[in-house]
Design brief:
This is Ribosomal protein L30 ferredoxin-like fold domain-containing protein. It comes from Piloderma croceum (strain F 1598). InterPro entries: Ribo_uL30_ferredoxin-like_sf, Ribosomal_uL30, Ribosomal_uL30_euk, Ribosomal_uL30_euk_arc, Ribosomal_uL30_ferredoxin-like, Ribosomal_uL30_N_euk. By secondary structure, the chain is mostly helical. It has 2 domains: about 60 residues; about 120 residues, no CATH class. The protein has 7 helices and 6 strands. A two-stranded antiparallel ribbon has the order 1-3. It has a two-stranded antiparallel sheet with strand order 2-4. The chain has a two-stranded antiparallel ribbon with strand order 5-6. Strand 5 and strand 6 form a beta hairpin. The longest helix is centred in the first third of the chain and has 62 residues. It is elongated and about 100 Å long.
C-alpha cells in the first residue's frame, strides 16, 4: 500500500474542520437573521397598533368635547420639522438646527431651548408638527443616513442597524417610531438622518416670505 504523507492528512483534517466551521457559522447567521426579522416584524405590528390606538383616542376625545359643548385642545407637540427657506442670517442657530441650505428640513424635539431657538429664527424658517404619514413618507422616500460623514440611502435595515443598534433601533420602522414619538433616543435618531431636501412648493418660493404663517405667509409655526 502507498503510504499517505502525514502533512496531506493534516491538511485534509484542517480543511474538513474549516468547512464544518463555515457551515456552522452560516447556519448560525441564518438563525440570527431569522430571529431578527421576527423581532422587526413584531415591532412593526406593535407600532401600527400604537398609532391606531392614539388616533382612535384623539377621535373619541374630540367627539366627547363636542358633545359637551367644549373645545378640544390637542396635546402639545413633541417634535417639529422646520425647513430653512432662505440663506441663514442667524447663522449659529441655523448650524445648531442643521439647516445649512435653503429648503433643508430636520426633525427637532420640542423643548424650551428649541422653542426659543425657533422663535429667534422664525422670519427665516417654516416649521410645524408633522403627522405620522409625513414622518413615514419623509424617512422612507427621502431618508438618508449619515455614516462616516457620508450620505447613505436607507436601502435596507442593516444601514440603520450598523449605526443605531446600540440604541435598539434596528429597522426603518424603529427609526420612524423613535422620531414620531420623540422617544428617549430621538437625538441620536435625528442626528443619524441626513437633513431632508423636500421638493420646492409649486411655482417655487415667493420673493417675499416675511409674513407669518397664520397670516397667510410662509414663516413660523
Amino acid at each position: 500500500d502507498v503510504e499517505v504523507p502525514e502533512t496531506f492528512l493534516k491538511k485534509r483534517t484542517q480543511n474538513e474542520k474549516a468547512r464544518e466551521e463555515r457551515l456552522a457559522a452560516v447556519t448560525a447567521a441564518r438563525k440570527a437573521s431569522k430571529a431578527k426579522r421576527e423581532v422587526i416584524f413584531k415591532r412593526a405590528e406593535s407600532y401600527v397598533k400604537e398609532y391606531l390606538s392614539k388616533e382612535k383616542e384623539e377621535i373619541c376625545l374630540k367627539r366627547a368635547a363636542r358633545a359637551a359643548g367644549d373645545f378640544y385642545v390637542p396635546a402639545q407637540p413633541k417634535m417639529y420639522f422646520p425647513i430653512n427657506e432662505i440663506a441663514p442670517k442667524p447663522r449659529k442657530i441655523h448650524q445648531l438646527l442643521r439647516l445649512l441650505q435653503i429648503n433643508n428640513g430636520v426633525f427637532v424635539k420640542v423643548t424650551k431651548a428649541t422653542r426659543q431657538m425657533l422663535r429667534l429664527v422664525e422670519p427665516y424658517i417654516t416649521y410645524g408638527e408633522p403627522n405620522l404619514k409625513s414622518v413615514h413618507e419623509l424617512i422612507y422616500k427621502r431618508g438618508y443616513g449619515k455614516i462616516n460623514k457620508q450620505c447613505i440611502p436607507l436601502t435596507n435595515n442593516s444601514v440603520i442597524e450598523s449605526t443605531l443598534a446600540q440604541y435598539d433601533i434596528l429597522s426603518v420602522e424603529d427609526l420612524v417610531h423613535e422620531i414620531y414619538t420623540a422617544g428617549p433616543n430621538f437625538k441620536q435618531a435625528s442626528n443619524f438622518l441626513w437633513p431632508f431636501k423636500p421638493l420646492n412648493p409649486t411655482g417655487c418660493w415667493r420673493m417675499r416670505k416675511f409674513m407669518h404663517y397664520v397670516l397667510g405667509g410662509d414663516f413660523g409655526d
